[in-house]
Design a protein that fits this description.
This protein is mainly β. It is built from no helices and ten strands.
Length: 113
């Protein structure tokens, strides 16, 4: 199983980033997919999840209206579009098929001026 995140980096407050996670080694379309994040000194938290078909999406209150999760089952890829980024969004972001033990290596997102 592999989950490879990309698209992170350093961005100014108010900016945007798009994270991607390409999955392999399991039946991607059968899993609810999620993005999670962990900031220094804090516990890992759920950012957003998307249902197997992509129609049902859920968000943490802290990112509602700013982040959008989506998936492309033909490409085994889940995305996280992050707009209006704030310094408190700074964290390592992970993709994760829920109800599994699989995790990506994580990717750093830093929001700073």
């Amino acid at each position: 199983v592999q989950l490879v995140e990309s698209g992170g980096g350093l961005v100014q407050p108010g900016g945007s980033l798009r994270l991607s996670c390409v999955a392999s080694g399991f039946t991607f379309s059968r899993y609810v997919m999620g993005w999670f994040r962990q900031a220094p000194g804090k516990e890992r938290e759920t950012v957003a999840t998307v249902s197997t078909g992509g129609s049902n999406r859920n968000y943490a209150d802290s990112v509602k209206g700013r982040f959008t999760i989506s998936r492309d089952n033909a490409k085994n890829t889940v995305y996280l579009q992050m707009n209006s980024l704030k310094p408190e969004d700074t964290a390592v972001y992970y993709c994760h098929p829920t109800s599994s033990t699989y995790w990506g290596q994580g990717i750093q997102v830093t929001v700073s001026s």
